[in-house]
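in:
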């Protein structure tokens, strides 16, 4: 089987102001990198539009309408200090939702072994009724709930290695006993949440703060020594990844020192875990990563490991 890769040129219609780190070029450099022959085996697909039924798995209808109605007819406007919408932002965020749900269908229907979604805007900071940190809808949490509702999975796990805390995902799964959420983040850093004592209503949220300046070995060791053991005890049937690459040493928004190879090793650990505990089922979606050359290399390394595990 193959690795599915879902993206769409319409993500480029989600516009942010000049100089904003979450920019159109992020997907351009990724798609350019993945056009190389070494990625010929990827099952490349265009992301479908998400549905109201999918997005309301996590967000109230009133919030969905708020995002839709906030989009200006031209230019972009700020919903908060970081988060902007333009004319097509609602559609882009809905398409990011459609991509992860399609990825879930492909993997659980046996059409792909695993999948990566290169989408914009990202999703892991969006809370139930609040856009935050460049994010409008909680894409990965929606995917997890969609997998359980549509494919009747009993338990799933979400791993978030973006340098920022996945506060939105945490908010969306806080009181769900069947979703385990593991987030590692630089601390202190925006958004200021993600302390170890934030464990969810059912004690199935793990927050792993990382001190500024550490490299990837710190997280790799934590995965090996404690975190993946706890995830295995939860017995998830599928693994979801919030793949942010802003812990990279070149990233302008944070102060960790992960190398591109650290992301390869992290992905390998997660794919090996999924092979042993989740029938290899992995759906990963892009979150942060703002140094364009590093972002392209990290996504290439991440996707290459997914492809190796799809054989
Ligand atoms: Zn981030």
């Amino acid at each position: 089987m193959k690795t599915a890769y879902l993206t769409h040129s319409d993500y480029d219609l989600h516009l942010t102001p000049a100089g904003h780190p979450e920019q159109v070029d992020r997907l351009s450099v990724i798609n350019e990198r993945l056009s190389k022959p070494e990625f010929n085996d990827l099952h490349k697909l265009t992301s479908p539009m998400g549905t109201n039924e999918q997005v309301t798995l996590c967000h109230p209808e009133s919030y969905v309408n708020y995002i839709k109605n906030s989009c200006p007819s031209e230019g972009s406007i700020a919903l908060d200090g970081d988060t902007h919408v333009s004319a097509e932002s609602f559609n882009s965020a809905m398409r990011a939702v459609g991509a992860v749900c399609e990825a879930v269908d492909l993997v659980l229907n046996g059409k792909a072994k695993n999948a990566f979604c290169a989408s914009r805007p990202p999703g892991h900071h969006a809370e139930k009724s609040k856009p935050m940190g460049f994010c409008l809808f909680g894409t990965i949490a929606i995917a997890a709930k969609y997998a359980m509702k549509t494919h009747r999975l009993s338990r799933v796990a979400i791993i978030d290695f973006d340098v920022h805390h996945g506060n939105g995902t945490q908010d969306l799964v806080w009181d769900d006993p069947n979703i385990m959420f593991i987030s590692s983040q630089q601390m202190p850093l925006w958004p200021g949440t993600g302390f170890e004592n934030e464990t969810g209503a059912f004690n199935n949220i793990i927050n792993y703060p990382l001190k500024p300046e550490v490299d990837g070995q710190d997280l790799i060791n934590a995965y090996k020594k404690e975190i993946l053991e706890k995830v295995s005890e939860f017995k998830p049937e599928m693994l979801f990844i919030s793949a942010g690459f802003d812990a990279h040493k070149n990233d302008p928004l944070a102060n960790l020192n992960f190398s591109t190879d650290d992301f390869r090793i992290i992905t390998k650990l997660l794919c090996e875990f999924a092979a042993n505990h989740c029938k290899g089922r992995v759906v990963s979606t892009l979150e942060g990563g703002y140094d364009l050359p590093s972002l392209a290399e990290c996504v290439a390394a991440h996707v290459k490991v997914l492809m190796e595990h799809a054989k």
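note: The domain at 3-308 is CATH 3.40.800.20 (Arginase; Chain A).
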